[in-house]
Structure to design on (259 residues):
């Protein structure tokens, strides 16, 4: 047996220790595909990593309200199995908007915390529990130390962790540029809806910015907002099924004729 053979186990042990400290895991992660090839092709494994921490923030004025960012996260959580823990510091979550993208109130456990410190504590406990499909938490500040703890907790249980970065002042949003241990970092901005060929309101559209992806590629995507099952669609005109077969168009024409 050579000296090199003796050294190899020691090197492997050291590398494993470094991986643990950096928030990496040796076990193979499963992923949750978006079902949009343009997005999945930019993510390692072809989807959003489960058993990992992800960050999402709103773009522009939505950095304060996180309406679109919250719906984006709810659509992701809706496609995971089991209950979803949603942690907030402000009582302004509009449950019908979450249901609109597939996340029903029956699946969601809402927890109100008094401060970011309490949010992070509940966030970590929820991820370590292991019996939840996803844990979503609204938090303003997220340090490297706190994010590493959350990442390790997610890796241990296999649960999906999503930190919605939400601030009370626009100037505080600069904190989003600080490094964290999250696997991906997203920004969601609202785009104008595409006009429909019939009277009505078009499906909301978003600009998704994949700002950071560990072992992946950064990119921007124009998409249609999540549908009733939490699924995104590429940024093109999409009609409801009832309109696609022409039945509602005919009915609309009859109403206009009789008006």
């Amino acid at each position: 047996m050579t000296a090199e053979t003796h050294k190899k186990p020691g090197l492997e042990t050291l590398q494993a220790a470094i991986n643990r400290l950096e928030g990496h895991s040796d076990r193979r992660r499963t992923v949750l595909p978006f079902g949009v090839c343009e997005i999945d092709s930019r993510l390692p494994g072809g989807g959003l990593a489960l058993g990992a921490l992800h960050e999402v923030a709103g773009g522009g004025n939505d950095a304060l309200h996180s309406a679109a960012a919250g719906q984006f996260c709810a659509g992701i959580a809706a496609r995971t199995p089991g209950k979803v823990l949603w942690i907030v510091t402000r009582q302004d979550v509009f449950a019908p908007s979450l249901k609109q993208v597939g996340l029903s109130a029956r699946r969601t456990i809402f927890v109100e915390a008094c401060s970011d410190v309490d949010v992070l504590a509940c966030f970590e406990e929820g991820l370590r529990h292991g019996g939840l499909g996803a844990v979503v938490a609204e938090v303003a500040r997220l340090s490297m130390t706190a994010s590493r703890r959350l990442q390790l907790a997610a890796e241990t249980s296999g649960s999906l962790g999503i930190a919605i970065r939400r601030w009370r002042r626009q100037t505080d949003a600069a904190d989003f540029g600080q490094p964290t241990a999250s696997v991906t970092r997203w920004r969601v901005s609202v785009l104008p809806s595409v006009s429909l060929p019939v009277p009505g309101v078009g499906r909301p559209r978003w600009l998704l910015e994949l700002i950071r992806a560990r072992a992946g590629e950064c990119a921007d995507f124009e998409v249609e907002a999540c549908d009733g099952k939490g699924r995104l669609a590429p940024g093109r005109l999409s009609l409801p099924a009832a309109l696609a077969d022409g039945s509602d168009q005919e009915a609309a024409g009859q109403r206009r004729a009789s008006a």
